[in-house]
Write a structure and sequence with these properties.
Elements (H helix, E strand, L loop, with lengths): L1 H6 L1 H65 L5 H24 L3 H29 L3 H9 L2 H81 L12 H23 L22 H38 L4 H15 L4 E8 L7 E8 L3 H4 L3 E3 L3 H9 L3 E3 L9 E3 L2 E3 L3 E9 L2 E10 L5 H68 L1
Antiparallel strand pairs: 1-2, 1-8, 2-3, 4-7, 5-6, 7-8
């Protein structure tokens, strides 16, 4: 038993103190209740005194003065005190009635009801006097005034006021006695509590100081583990400050939680608070370093997914644009260059179609442009192998320039002109044959996935251009065949008519020979 008590000395001591404190807390709450009750009773007493005094000293006086002044002067403004006293009096009577019920003053409350009736009679009497005053019936007004209803009301009011004030004084004295008794009990118990608590606290302090050293070593090891496995701030170890050690551990957990939540929410720009170039090497193999590596890897995956989705959706929409405009090479070219320029967020774009020579050399001719000066490029024709566009046609390889020769191209707007910072030229091939050349200029450098997108889109548009050209040639041949058929049909009709004329002539000649 003694051994167990020694082992649990702090717990037992604190339990005793806790019991005393709980009892003391209960006593404090009881004293607080007594004080609140005393204050409430005092306020109610003051409220009853003030309201009873207001009946005659304020409300009835306002009614009487306002009514008399109005009757003598006929000034409507003098009725304001009358109306004010009238409304105040009703509120005062209602308030007094409720206070007497709360204080359980049944005797006076029973007497208060007849007084209320006489008070209402007085108010009705006052209303009649006001009505005579408004009609200017001064004689009737004086007749009612001489009845002196206010004196009758005072005879009921005065004894009730005396009884209520006496009762309020008794209640207040009783509350003060309860309050003083509660305060005396509180002082006695506080002395007892102090006599028991002081030696107990001294013993507990001794045991706590003895355990502090052991706890300090434990916290020091905890901080070293925290720096090794969680986050190392690169500062000196605070081996004597337990609050700092615990706070650092909690903060690191909060940082880890906030970092993980940010990553889970898609914020791959999140950073570990406190991680910098000075302490980054110290945190390569702990939790903070691993989370940074995870963030970077997830960011790469997200960027790759976004680029893949951008390319996939762009190609799907681009294929639809190309498919819907395969019957007209001019419309196809315009729709394609507009879509690509907008999708790439470029500032200018142009599409050159390959035209095979028919009696002349083959060339690349501008078929569509977007954000260009159309008057300048409307008849643009580039020889094969000439310039960057002609060279790209021969080499069948994409050309991208980040240093554009001065004067090569200019992006213009209503605010002026500026030279782009990146230019890309993409051969659009189908089955190894270049059908067109795309030239695009932008203020931003084209990324590898954007270049790959343009090359894939080039395959789609090259196939569409080839199909459109084939359809146009087929339509042209069909139209020529129809024209030839119609011409042959016209010749047959003309030959038939000639034959019919010859037959008619021969028949006429035979009749002439026969009948001479």
């Amino acid at each position: 038993m003694i051994k167990r008590l020694k082992e649990n000395f702090i717990t037992a001591s604190l339990t005793i103190l806790l019991g005393l404190l709980i009892f003391n807390t209960g006593l404090i709450f009881y004293n607080r209740f007594v004080m609140i009750e005393n204050n409430t009773l005092q306020k109610q007493t003051e409220e009853v005194r003030r309201n009873w005094t207001n009946i005659f000293e304020r409300d009835l006086r306002l009614i009487d003065l306002g009514l008399r002044g109005y009757a003598l002067t006929r000034n409507q403004q003098l009725l304001d005190p009358y109306h004010s006293g009238f409304s105040n009096l009703k509120r005062t009577i209602k308030h007094i009635d409720s206070l007497l019920v709360v204080q359980k003053l049944d005797t006076l409350h029973t007497k208060f009801s007849p007084f209320s009736i006489k008070l209402n009679d007085y108010l009705v009497h006052s209303e009649k006097m006001r009505a005579f005053a408004e009609k200017d019936s001064l004689k009737q007004f004086v007749r009612l005034l001489n009845q002196d209803k206010g004196y009758d009301l005072w005879k009921e009011y005065s004894p009730m006021l005396t009884g209520i004030l006496r009762y309020q004084d008794d209640l207040l004295n009783e509350a003060k006695l309860k309050y003083q008794s509660a305060m005396n009990r509180n002082v006695i118990f506080q002395i007892i509590l102090l006599m028991m608590a002081v030696p107990t606290i001294i013993s507990v302090i001794y045991r706590i100081r003895r355990d502090t050293e052991a706890r300090k070593k434990l916290l020091l090891g905890f901080e070293e583990s925290n720096r090794k496995y969680m986050f190392h701030p690169g500062t000196d170890l605070q081996d004597e400050n337990a609050e700092v050690i615990i706070s650092n551990s909690v903060k690191n957990l909060q940082k880890a939680s906030a970092f993980i939540k940010s990553i889970a929410g898609g914020d791959y720009a999140a950073s570990w608070e406190g991680l910098n170039a000075q302490n980054s090497k110290l945190n390569q193999d702990n939790l903070s370093g691993d989370l940074i590596k995870m963030r970077d890897q997830m960011k790469k995956v997200k960027d790759a997914d976004e680029k893949r989705i951008w390319s996939t959706e762009g190609l799907a929409r681009f294929s639809e644009v190309a498919r819907n405009n395969q019957n007209n090479i001019e419309k196809l070219s315009n729709e394609v260059i507009q879509f690509l320029t907008k999708h790439m967020k470029a500032q200018q774009g142009s599409l050159f179609l390959f035209h095979e020579g028919d009696g002349e050399e083959s060339s690349l001719q501008l078929a569509a442009c977007y954000a260009f000066d159309r008057k300048k490029y409307i008849n643009k024709r580039i020889e094969i192998g000439y310039g960057l566009i002609g060279q790209a046609f021969l080499e069948k390889e994409t050309i991208m320039l980040t240093k554009i020769p001065e004067g090569y191209i200019s992006i213009t707007s209503g605010l002026g002109g500026a030279s782009p910072t990146c230019l890309i030229i993409v051969p659009m091939k189908s089955n190894g044959k270049v059908e067109a050349i795309l030239e695009m200029a932008s203020f931003n450098k084209f990324e590898p996935h954007e270049i790959e997108f343009l090359e894939k889109a080039g395959e789609v548009i090259a196939s569409s251009i080839n199909t459109t050209k084939t359809n146009e040639r087929t339509s042209k041949l069909l139209a020529e065949s129809q024209q030839q058929a119609e011409a042959l049909k016209a010749q047959e009709e003309e030959l038939r008519q000639n034959m019919e004329e010859m037959q008619a002539t021969q028949e006429s000649m035979r009749r002439v020979e026969k009948y001479g």
